[in-house]
Amino acid sequence: xxxxxxxxxxxxxxxxxxxxxxxxxxxxxxxxxxxxxxxxxxxxxxxxxxxxxxxxxxxxxxxxxxxxxxxxxxxxxxxxxxxxxxxxxxxxxxxxxxxxxxxxxxxxxxxxxxxxxxxxxxxxxxxxxxxxxxxxxxxxxxxxxxxxxxxxxxxxxxxxxxxxxxxxxxxxxxxxxxxxx
Length: 181
Prior knowledge:
The protein is mainly α. It contains ten helices and no strands.
């Protein structure tokens, strides 16, 4: 077991994008399998996803610099205030653990209110949501290959620790309970 955090290697474009037969629409009736496919692809292609996210975000920042950087400062300020408030109140911490989906809806609604007040934040939100939606769409549609399964078993067994694994654990998104331990 290692405590060293390492990025997964950058996957070849042929592996990352692949051929049409490497993609399939998931069965939405079995959300556990869909979530598992997303989780496993996020872990396996994490470096590719980080590069894609940064590339799209930087392109948006070059095209719309003022709204992006204004949005960054407002969002950071909101997160700092929300973190301070939630750490001082055990009731809020308990609510976040017991009802994470409702907590997310409340945060999105409050954020939406602030975004309405500051119209320029919509550009910032779009520059975040566009790459995230592309990443999640790829992770949901991309079928897993043998290397993907082997690498994810290493993470599951605790032989490797990755930034995406830590992020998914922090967001409490992990489907595999063994990854949480």
